[in-house]
Each structure stands twice: as structure tokens, then as C-alpha cells.
Amino acid sequence: MYGIALSVSTCIRAGTRVDIAWIVDRQQVDPSDPNEAVALTPGGGRVGSLMSGALDGQLIELTAVQGRQGRLCKLDIGPDDAAVSGVEPAAGIACMLVPASELPDGLWQLLLDREPACLVSQLDGDSVTTTVLYTSDTISGAVDSARRTFGHGASVTEIFDDIVVTVLWPTSTLIIVGSGEIADSLERLASVIGWQSVIAGNAHEASGFIAGLSPLDSVVVLGHDLEMSGGALMAALESDVGYIGGVGPNRLQQSRSDWLAYRGFTDLSRIRGPAGLQIGARNPQEIALAIAAEIVATQTASG
Prior knowledge:
27% strand; five-stranded antiparallel sheet; 2 domains
């Protein structure tokens, strides 16, 4: 849900109805991640998706008849939707579909701040009667099942009789600007570590991704194109991102510094360049490992 928080907040401020859907149970497929969510507005507008969009059509139809009360919906992925979205057909997928206005005050700001959250929804049949928000400071007052689930320190949903517990836990995002073997190796490492990763191929695309980053996140810039790498570094310096790394020899680092200085960016102390811990890395895979290790070290020190 962290990825849709800004759009949902904007809709709420504008008085636009928006319904939120997330998966709480996948009987025939992998466990659900409540960070995968979709926001639906009247007329079929949407931000985010579920299961590569395979459920979006059904959810849009349901919002057309949705009242003010949320509900637990059981959906199936038929062969046609599966073929279009590239997922396997599945049955018995349980989704929460709740108007954003019925979710607790403070949830979206908490997500914008990249803080953990726990939603405890009370069911009456398939209808959601109440949803209570708990934070790291207040989770001690939740029911035992919610406290245990929150204690895992990961995003997860659990259904306990007539209660749905949804834990939202922020994960780090790594924006990789550039391409090549180092970029590919970093992307693979990020997946193993549990980070979300995006490879941006141009300065405009990179700046869009970087703008919303937080201290939990990282930006690594590769390549000799000064317009692309300089633009990405400039966007990173203007953001709250926790780690900024520049890959390349000292000569390239100096060229980037000159490019930034010409545009008024002279305090470059946040940029790690050349990026990566000094472990004697010799090939792209080892360089990616050194960079990932430096990111972890930076996150641990700041935490």
C-alpha cells in the first residue's frame, strides 16, 4: 500500500471517492503481500494492481455497487484474465475491498512516512464493520493475534475467525540508473535481500522514481552519460533518499561533480563515489556485492 499512499491521499483531500483493495488469502498460489494494493476511483480509474492486473476488472465492477461499507470478496482468475495478465488461473482468492474513507484516520500519512502499520478489521459475515489502526507505539493494545502477526516484522495478512489482520511493513527500494552487468547483478541481489528494485534507463524516468524516496531507500548511478547520471544525482540530492552511490573511476566522479557544481550543487557529501565497500571487487558481480554491502552498512548506521 505504500506505493499508492500519495495518490490515495490526494483523492481524499480532493473529496474524490476511492476504494482500496488488497489480497488477504490466496488458496492456490503464493502467500499474499498486502503492499500489493490497488486504488480504484469512479469511472474505472486505478493506481496499482493486484496479480499483474488479473483482478482489476472484477474489482472495478464490484466498486460500482459498493456501498459505504467494506467487504471481504472471493474472486477467481479465469483463463482469459490469466492469459492477458500472464498469471496462472486461480480460484478462491480473498480480497478486502474498502472505501478509503472507512479506513482509519492517519493511515495514509503513516504510509507516506514509511512507518509500519497494522490494520485490524472486524467482519460480520463478509461485511467489514470496523477497522482499527495500530502503530509500533500502540500495537501493545491490540488483540493477541495482531500483536503476534505484527511481531514478524514483515508485510502479511492473516484471517482469524471474524478478524482480518493486515500488517504493512516498509521495504527498501533501490533505484538503479543505467544498464549493464553491474545493474543486472544489483537487481538480482536486491531480490535476494528483499528490496524492491527498479532499473531506470533515462534521466526523466529516474527523476520520477527518485522523487518519492525515503531514508530507507537507495540510488545507484552507473554509466558515462553525464546528462543521465548527473540528472539522477541531482534528483537524489534533492530527495530524502538514504544512500546515493556513483559507480565509476575517479575521473568520471570528477566529471559528475563538475556537472553538478555548474548547476549549483556543491555539497556532494551524501554521494558515495566510487560506490561500494573496498573489498577488492574485480568483476560486475563482486562490484554489485560491494555496493549492496555499503547500502546495508549505511542503513544499519542510520537506523
